[in-house]
Automatic annotation (TrEMBL):
One of its GO terms (cellular component) is ribosome. The lineage of its organism: Eukaryota, Metazoa, Ecdysozoa, Arthropoda, Hexapoda. One of its GO terms (molecular function) is structural constituent of ribosome. This is 28S ribosomal protein S21, mitochondrial. Belongs to the bacterial ribosomal protein bS21 family. It holds the Pfam family Ribosomal_S21.
Length: 113
């Protein structure tokens, strides 16, 4: 990063010290540091939905739920192994679904009579 500040996708500016702090904390990117949710026309529910979606995408709510109570080391290992296996399974299923949904096949329904 060059200069004193960086611009994030949604146009917000952060200082170089905030960027360094965020990267030092091990975050993937300092996206949430400059997020602002505006309430338009007193529609607080819509703003809350937007905020919950942002927090869900950044996995902040999941982190909060995990750290609310102590998680024993064997539970951490089980959770991490489950997440890894689920990611592998999901990737494989996505690949299979894309294979079945591809176009211009000779036999559009393989295995069916």
């Amino acid at each position: 990063m060059t200069g004193q500040s960086a611009q994030i996708e949604d146009g917000a500016m952060i200082s170089s010290s905030e960027f360094a702090q965020a990267t030092h904390m091990g975050l993937k990117h300092p996206y949430f540091l400059a997020r602002t949710v505006f309430v338009k026309n007193n529609d607080v529910e819509h703003a809350c939905r937007i905020m919950n979606r942002i927090l869900g995408q950044e996995e902040i709510l999941d982190q909060f739920r995990r750290t609310r109570y102590y998680e024993k080391p064997h539970q951490v290992r089980r959770r991490i192994n489950y997440e890894r296996c689920k990611a592998i399974y999901d990737e494989d299923m996505d690949r299979r679904i894309q294979f079945l949904l591809r176009k211009n096949r000779v036999d559009p329904f393989p295995g069916c009579l």
